[in-house]
Amino acid sequence: MEKKAETEKAVWQPKIIAFVCNWCTYAGADLAGTSRLKYDAHIRVLRLPCTGRIDPLFILKAFERGADGVLVSGCHPGDCHYNTGNYHARRRWTLFRELLEFVGIDLQRLQFAWVSAAEGAKWAEVVNAMVAHVRELGPFEGYHTMLARSGQTLWLAKAGANGGNGSGHDVPGTQPVERSKEKQETE
Amino acid sequence: MARIGVFVCHCGENIGRTVDCAAVAAAAAKFAGVAHAADYRYMCSDPGQNMIRQAIKEKRLTGVVVAACSPRMHEPTFRRATAESGVNPFLCEMANIREHCSWVHEDRGEATRKAIDLVRVIVEKVKRNQPLLPIRVPVTRRALVIGGGIAGMQAALDIANGGHEVILVEKEPSIGGHMAQLSETFPTLDCSQCILTPRMVEVAQHPRIKLYAYSEVDSVKGFIGNFEVSIRRKATSVNDALCTGCGACQAACPMGKIPSEFNRGLGTRKAIYSPFPQAVPNKPVLDQANCMRYRAAAKKGVPAAQSTVCGKCQQACPIQPQKAVDFSLCQDTFVTEKVGAIVVASGFDLMPMSQFGEYGYGKYADMIDGLQFERLASASGPTQGAIKRPSDGKEPKEVVFIQCAGSRDNAKGCPYCSKICCMYTAKHTMLYKHKVHDGKAYVFYMDVRAAGKNYDEFWRRAVEEDGAVYLRGRVSRIYKRGGKLVVKGVDTLSGELMEIQADMVVLATAAVAQPGAEQLAQRLNTAYDMYKFFSEAHPKLRPVETNTAGVFLAGACQAPKDIPDAVAQASAAASKVQGLFSSQELERDPTIAHVNEATCAACWYCVDVCPYGAIQKKEIKDKQGRLIKLVAEVNEGVCQGCGLCAATCRSKSVELDGFKDEQVYAEIVAL
């Protein structure tokens, strides 16, 4: 199997990470499954309770770890299981996209879709469109080029195949801030 | 050091056909922290679950990953099996390699690679999961029912008969709802009030039902088992404790020209009134906007109690020495009730006739809606049951009924079927023919939808026995010629243009949500659909629950429905409430947010975003009791675990169980 994987590596395949909410899109993706709808396999779904749980840094992290595209999907406006989570997500998202555009990330690699628990077919369409689009755009090197330009290196240099050291708190910037805060408290 | 067990399920052929399960298990065995990996044909079967139990004991596993179907299917199954072997159930998670992988992909290599990735993600998550203990919260075993129509009454009676106290809130002066307005009911043509009024009395006299009529839910705080509801009791200017409901005040009131809401504008009422003779509670209310004394007092800027204008109702009141009509009772009051469950039965309304300008609404008095026809046909109505047209009181000899007025019409913003109109229009034609023997009833329809016990037979009876003329087609125009309303339409079955000289036109207007439904849903934190009907938790399997735990639905507030359906749903909601009330405490999902008090900077962004108001401010004091600082604190009974606070927190001081930053990052890194 590994051999096969290596030979396929020559033919580049996109890596797309999807952050979905538990109540609408995850269930919609389940429905696509029970309906046996076929879609492109190059998508990896991470389940969160709500799109409102998505910290923009998750998306940056995904790009840092070599994702070629990120898909975010949750309940339609008005349908949020937590009443307003998706509205907060939408606001955060709008702002975050502008920031990303400002720093020069191609926004086409970042897609957002409302997919309800009843929209299995829509989920399949969204994934297929996303994968096809990213495949057209080619591999994403932007994050690494940007880091190189600013003279920084990756916080987590070693990219272990089995998921790194899993320390988790390896987002640039978060740890020092926390530490200084803790210091203040103890003082 | 984590010792995770990975169990890969073939699900018969469902997974095994596309995913190489043995290869997934072999790959998983090499992941850091995985102590055991196996695959089996059916993990959810007894032998499959035994494999997990045994492996936990033999390999001293600290966590379990089951790669199988969606966690929405079998997570409880495997968590139970894990707990039975002494490992906290929240250390068991599922990787969804069926719905999200084997069923949606065809290439075996790609599917297998994806399955391995999905397992790796969940292994990384489980490594960082914390054992959680179920949260137990006490249950207040009292229920609130919102709406005193047939659904609300049924739910209230069922819960009360089950031994629990019920608070019933009705916004109108009397319970009974739309059913009290109906003349007869389909498909039996039995008198609506005859079957309804005994129920209304039963509700009023039930020792465990507390009825707040002429009241509305003002605010709702709290969560399942522990709601605190503030109820606005609208001012009635009548002392309920003294009033005997004799009706002397109504007779004395000189304001006789106010359109009666109960008769949908076809009759009149007084300023102090009881909506209909059988009203429950039988206490009048005073409508301040239409009362001479209140209006005069408001103009002068003095309280109505000090005014000397009119006051005939008070003079007529026979209660001595203190009159029951009391102008000092002019302010709304509020009561607070604690309840453990809420049944919403706020009902429906009809689409306003003002939406039908194309049919000449507003120009022609003889165009009425279905409920107005009910009032005309009702013995308690403005005509004592005689069918008389509103304009001149003549008996109409030709009546046109138009179905789907608004329903199934995108242009009216109402693409759905209102469900009840086909049947009630058939009923109307029969009621009409039974009273006007030489009359002619025409019905324009799109389809006749008569699914239900004895329903199809019923509308056929209207055609075959009572001679209603059904014309399949739409009406294009209605205009006046002479004393008649000319209805132009097409009969699509014969292909002919129809022109009917009608004396009266009845529109079966669409059933729409109550005007205040959206605000009520927002007060209750429940979801509603694009038409403002309340959303059920699952369209098939959880039809009377909402996604807000402890809030249930009954009747037409969820979607248009007829009386038997509304009653059945009300009883279902009542049984859900009684299930909830069957124990003193309830267990709830413990995946909630926690605040790191050491780093919390007290910016309160989390307080602002929390949809449940679950985050409070907590004081931290030193030994001398001096305030050191304020921090956020999560009320574990209220928190629903959405994680909005965690994503919003600037200092990363809020963490959500099961979805900690550390875990999500580990999952991303694992891909």
Please tell me about this protein's structure:
The complex is a heterodimer of chains A (187) and B (671). Chain A has 187 residues and is of the alpha/beta class. Chain A has one domain: Rossmann fold. Chain A contains 7 helices and 4 strands, in the order αβαβαβαβααα. In chain A, strand 3, helix 4 and strand 4 form a beta-alpha-beta unit. The longest helix of chain A has 19 residues. Chain A is globular and about 45 Å long. With 671 residues, chain B is an alpha/beta fold. Among the domains of chain B are: 124 residues, Rossmann fold, CATH 3.40.50; 69 residues, no CATH class; 165 residues, FAD/NAD(P)-binding domain (3-Layer(bba) Sandwich), CATH 3.50.50; 81 residues, Alpha-Beta Plaits (2-Layer Sandwich). Chain B contains 18 helices and 34 strands. Chain B has a 5-stranded parallel β-sheet with strand order 10-7-6-18-29. A 5-stranded parallel β-sheet of chain B has the order 20-27-21-22-23. The longest helix of chain B has 20 residues. The model of chain B has no long low-confidence stretch (mean pLDDT 94). Classes of the chains: A alpha/beta (187), B alpha/beta (671). Chains A and B meet through helix 1, helix 2, strand 2, helix 3 and helix 4 of A and helix 4, helix 5, helix 17 and helix 18 of B.
